[in-house]
Amino acid sequence: MTTAMSARSVQHFIAGAFEDSAESAPIDRSAPATDEVVSVVQAGGPVEVSRAVAAARAAFDDGPWPRMTGMERSVLIGRVADLIERDAATLAALDAEEVGKPIRLAEGDIAGAVGLWRYAASLALTMSGSTYTNNGPDFTGLVLREPIGVVGLIVPWNFPALILSQKLPFALAAGCTAIVKPSELTSSSAQHIMRLTEEAGFPRGVIGMVVGDGRAGQAIAEADGIDLVSFTGSTATGRRVLAASAGNLKKLSLELGGNAANVVFADADLEDAAAGVVFGVNFNNGECCVSQPRLLVEDAVADDFVAEVARQTALLRVGQPMDPRTDVGALIHAGHREKVTSYIDGASGDGAAVIFGGTRLTEGELGRGQFVAPTVIDRVAAGSAAFQDEIFGPVLTVTRFHDQDEAVRLANGVQYGLANSVWSKSVDTVLQVAKRLQSGTVYANTTIDAPPQMPFGGYKASGVGREMGQAGFEEFTELKSVNIRTGKRAGTFAIRAGA
Ligand code: TXE
C-alpha cells in the first residue's frame, strides 16, 4: 500500500460545518485498483453522532424545514439535482476510484442520482393524507401525513452516490432532517454532495454527515434522537441494526443482500437473454444487490445458451476503472476478493465445472489491484454454497431446469428475495412466473432496469420496507388520525349507568 500525494481528506458535516473527529484516528482508504491511499476518512463514533443528532433534532423540532411548503422544499431538492448534474464528472471519478467500478458505470450512477433527486423534488409536492366522511353526518376523519422526524441513512460502498440518492432526497421531500453515514470505503462523493446541499442553500442542520466505519453506523442505530433508520448493506449487519434500534423502537427500512436468478425459458429471445445474463452478473463487477449470479436455464436450450454466455463473457474487458473501455473493474478490497475466489475454488466437484475464468488477474498493472476474471461455473447444485450465498462478484453459476415448477422452486430456494428476472416470449409464462417469484422486484425480458417510480425492496432475508417510488417516500412519513365530532356532545359520554 502506498499513499498518493493528493489523498483527499473526508470530514464530518455537523451543524453546517465540516470538521474532524475529536478523538479517533482517521481511516486510510486505498483505491482497490491501485492499492494507493486516495482518501483519509475521519472515524466518527458516538460523540460525533450525538452532536449531529442534536443539530438535526433542533432543525426538525424548531427549524424551518418541516414547516416549509412542499413547493419550497421541492425547489431546494431540485437545485441539488442541477448541481449534481453540473459536477457529474467529478462525482463519477470519485466513485469509480474508490469503488473500483468502471467509469462508464459510475457516470450512469450519477445520471441515476440526478433522476432520483428530480423525482423526489416532485414528490415533495404530493404529500397528502386522506379524509373519511362516511361515518355519519357529525364525524369527519382526517388522516394527516407528517414527516417522521430525524432519520439516519446508512449507505454501503457499491453505489455510494446512487444509494445515498435513493434515500436522502426522499427523506427531505417528506420534511425530515437527516444524518448520512456513507461507507468508510467510499465516502468522498457523499462529502461532495454535502457541499452541494450547502451551495443549494439548505438550512443549517437539516442535513448532516458522520463518516467512519461500523462504530458510527451502530451509534446511529442506537441513537434515541433518531426516529427512523434506512440502512442498505449486508443481511448480517442489518440484523445488528435491527437489534441496536430496539431502545427507542425506531422505524426501520432495511435493504439487505440479494442472490437473484435469471430464469431463461426455451421460448425466450435467446440473443437478448444471453446479453442480459452476462450484463446481470458482471454489472458493477457483480457487486450489486440485484446482481444476477444464478442462471437457471431450461434443459432444451441449455447447452447452446451456456456456450453463448461463456463466449460473451470472454469478450469482457477487465481493466482500470478510469479507462472508458473497461467493462469490469476491481473488487472493493483484498478480503472481498478472497471471499469471491473462495466460492469459485469451492464450487468445483459434485459435477460442477468452471467453464470460463476462475482466477485472480495478476498480469501487468492489474497485479496491484483486486481483479478477478469474470467466471462461469456450469452445473452448480442448488444446495451448494456458490448457489446459496451472495457471492458479490463477477461469478455466474448455471443450473438447468425441466419445467416452470422446477424453475420457480430453484429461483425461490435461497434465503434472499430482492430481485429476479424471467425471460420468455409467452405472456402467460412471464406473468405466471412473476407472480410466483418471492422477490420485491421481478424484471421481465430485461435486467437491472428500474426507473425511480418503481418501489424497491426485499422479501425474506433481503429486508423490510421499500425505497423509491411513492412507497419509498411514504416510508419517511407518519400517519396521524384526527377524529372530529361536530355538534353538541350531550349524552355521548354516558359512562355512568343511567346517567
Ligand atoms: O457491508 P456492511 P460490508 C453485502 C455483500 C458484501 C457483504 C459485506 O455480500 O460482500 O455485504 O459488505 C455500516 N451498525 N452487501 O461488510 O457491513 C458500514 O460502515 C450500523 C450487500 O461492507 O453491511 C456501511 O456504511 N452500520 C449490500 C454499511 O453499514 C454498520 C451492499 C454497509 O456495510 C455496522 C454492501 C453496524 N454495526 C454489501 N457495521 C447491498 N444490499 O447492496 C457496519 N455498518
From TrEMBL:
<dbReference type="InterPro" id="IPR029510">
    <property type="entry name" value="Ald_DH_CS_GLU"/>
</dbReference>
<dbReference type="InterPro" id="IPR016163">
    <property type="entry name" value="Ald_DH_C"/>
</dbReference>
<feature type="active site">
    <location>
        <position position="255"/>
    </location>
</feature>
<dbReference type="Pfam" id="PF00171">
    <property type="entry name" value="Aldedh"/>
</dbReference>
<feature type="domain" description="Aldehyde dehydrogenase">
    <location>
        <begin position="22"/>
        <end position="482"/>
    </location>
</feature>
<comment type="similarity">
    <text>Belongs to the aldehyde dehydrogenase family.</text>
</comment>
<dbReference type="InterPro" id="IPR016162">
    <property type="entry name" value="Ald_DH_N"/>
</dbReference>
<dbReference type="InterPro" id="IPR016161">
    <property type="entry name" value="Ald_DH/histidinol_DH"/>
</dbReference>
<keyword id="KW-0560">Oxidoreductase</keyword>
<protein>
    <submittedName>
        <fullName>Aldehyde dehydrogenase family protein</fullName>
    </submittedName>
</protein>
<dbReference type="InterPro" id="IPR015590">
    <property type="entry name" value="Aldehyde_DH_dom"/>
</dbReference>
